[in-house]
Amino acid sequence: MCVARPFDGQPATPGNGNMIALKMKSREDVDAVHARSLELGGLDEGNPVPLAIRLLRRYIRDLDGNKLNAYVVAGQ
């Protein structure tokens, strides 16, 4: 758990300053969750974020404004 100011510099609200992370089994699963979220009306929160070489994240904002993170760690 981390306590910090929201990344975008805006006030902390129920949809800003918190995030739900969903661990996926593969990069294809990460991309599928991201694509389906967009189909259902969610908003893209940026390009895929590769961290190091082993971790990939995709960010989505749902219809209620909640931030979601679908991610995969290579080799796990």
Tell me, rounded to a whole number, the average pLDDT. Answer: 82
β-strand amount: 25-35%
What level of helicity do the residues show? Answer: 10-25%
pLDDT < 50 runs, ≥5 residues: none
Please give the count of helices: 1
Question: H/E series, N to C?
Answer: EHEEEE
Sheet having the most strands: 5 strands, mixed
Short description:
With 76 residues, the chain is α+β, with helices and mostly antiparallel strands.
What does this structure look like?
The protein is α+β, with helices and mostly antiparallel strands and 76 residues long. It has a domain at 19-62. Helix content is 17%, strand content 32%. The chain is built from one helix and five strands; from the N terminus they run E-H-E-E-E-E. It has one helix spanning 27-39; strands at residues 19-23, 43-44, 49-51, 55-61, 67-73.
Spell out the blueprint of helices and strands.
Blueprint: E1 19-23, H1 27-39, E2 43-44, E3 49-51, E4 55-61, E5 67-73
Considering the chains and any ligands shown, give keywords for the structure.
5 strands, 5-stranded mixed beta sheet, 1 helix, alpha+beta
